[in-house]
Design brief:
By secondary structure, the chain is an alpha/beta fold. The protein is 37% helix and 11% strand. Strands 3-2-1-4-5-6 form a 6-stranded parallel sheet, with helices on both faces. Helix 1 packs across helix 2. The structure holds magnesium ion. Magnesium ion binds next to loops.
């Protein structure tokens, strides 16, 4: 497998790992509030949980990673590791692209936890990229849950699937509600790539006729 392979660019938090579920548990402890009082219907940045009077999102994030091993301990999203194993066996090159280094000073911890987690759940990958600008990395099809990332990738003409959660309900298709959907959409794109008909899904090259599911 090499750079001529079909490359699947995979976001981790909120797509392969249950980031919001893990953060909810940690936030309940950090805020000393019952977990039921924290709505699971969050938007990007978790403003619904009233973090500002405790120092804001970044303080919670720092606690979660450095004191609770967030990236080592979060549960995988249902079916995600097994589906990635199947796609890898089919010849799809998995390229993980994550923005987990956005806070300074604990990069070693963030990277170490990430690698341990990927190994512990037997998630196959050829490339592991810690990047903010995901479009600069390059992939034939991407999956992400952040509205900003999905919009930015599509605006660059990148074929991007949005993985459903409460942060992205307003984002248009193509969309995967489950990893079964991901498998189908990625294999469809793979087939289109093999036959030379893979269209662009971005704002500049969006072709609704080619979007299924
Ligand atoms: Mg994400």
């Amino acid at each position: 497998m090499d750079e001529s392979s079909f490359i699947f660019g995979v976001d981790l938090d909120g797509v392969v790992g249950d980031f919001y579920g893990a953060m909810r548990t940690i936030a309940a402890e950090w805020l000393d509030r019952p977990i039921e009082s924290l709505t699971p219907e969050v938007s990007f940045g978790l403003s619904e949980w009233g973090l500002d009077e405790y120092g804001g999102y970044e303080k919670l994030h720092r606690f979660a990673v450095t004191q609770r091993g967030l990236f080592r301990n979060m549960e995988p999203v249902r079916d995600a590791p097994a589906t990635l194993r199947k796609l890898s066996v089919r010849g799809v090159r998995i390229r993980i692209i994550t923005h987990r280094l956005f806070l300074k000073y604990f990069h070693r911890e963030a990277i170490a936890q990430t690698i341990e987690w990927l190994d512990a759940h037997d998630i196959p990958y050829w490339d592991l990229c810690f990047m903010k600008d995901k479009g600069a990395v390059g992939a034939h099809v991407y999956i992400d849950d952040s509205p900003e990332n999905v919009e930015s990738l599509r605006a660059q003409g990148c074929h991007t699937i949005v993985f459903s959660n409460s942060t992205n309900r307003a984002i248009p298709k193509p969309r995967a509600d489950t990893w079964e959907d991901v498998e189908r959409l990625v294999l469809e794109a793979y087939e289109e790539w093999r036959t030379g008909t893979l269209g662009l899904f971005g704002a500049s090259g969006y072709d609704p006729g080619s979007v299924r599911g």
